[in-house]
Each structure stands twice: as C-alpha cells, then as structure tokens.
Amino acid sequence: MKFTIDEIKAEHQKVKSGADFPKYIQKIKNLGVSYYNAYVKDGNTEYFDNEDESVSTGAKYEALKVNEVTNLDQFTVRLQLHQQGGTDYLTFCKDCANNGIEGWNVDLNTMSCTYFDKVGNSVLVEQIPSV
C-alpha cells in the first residue's frame, strides 16, 4: 500500500466544493490511488491501489436513506450546482440520496466518475477535467 487513509483525508479536507474536485483527484492519483468507491448512505469511501489493496474511511456521517427511484434530471441539476461550488460535500450527498444515487466510482486511470443507483446500475458517467 503506497498511501494511507490519513494522507487521503488531508487532501480531502482541502476540498471545499465540487469545484475543487479535479485538483483533489490529481493529488490522490499522485499518492498512488488507482480508483475509489464512495457510498452516499454513510459517506464511507474505499480507496484502491494498482494491486487492488484498499483502505477505507468508514462512516463519515449519520446514515442517509437513498431513494429507491432515480431522478436523473434533478440529480444532474444538483450535480452541476455542486461542481460549480454551490454546495458542500454533505449537501451533495443528501442530494444524491434524494435522487436515488447510491454512490460513485472514480477511476483515476481513465479519469472518469460513474454514478450508480441502488442496484448498481450506471446512471451517469462523466470525464474528470484535468487540472
């Protein structure tokens, strides 16, 4: 394992909104993160290296109920607001839960972010802008 959860948390604390996301991704990629899965329910995020070894943050907040039905149109509106710096992380996670988004997978090799629903279906894939 090339990185520690403390190193990742230190970089994550620098993120104030979605506008800071591309810079954060570049920093953790430099630490050796290959991909990660973030779960809306409690904020747990699991980070993997190239050998598929992982570290996990554990729950970050009180559990949210993720809606059974995905509202992609409303989620897209809230995602754009977050990416422009209009919401903080917890607000964004609540927006995800309200719109049926279970979590997201970030692949640092392809520089893509895939949002998925409660049954694991991909509902939206975005390319991460370079810094």
TrEMBL record:
<dbReference type="InterPro" id="IPR009833">
    <property type="entry name" value="DUF1398"/>
</dbReference>
<dbReference type="InterPro" id="IPR036696">
    <property type="entry name" value="YdfO-like_sf"/>
</dbReference>
<protein>
    <recommendedName>
        <fullName>DUF1398 domain-containing protein</fullName>
    </recommendedName>
</protein>
<dbReference type="Pfam" id="PF07166">
    <property type="entry name" value="DUF1398"/>
</dbReference>
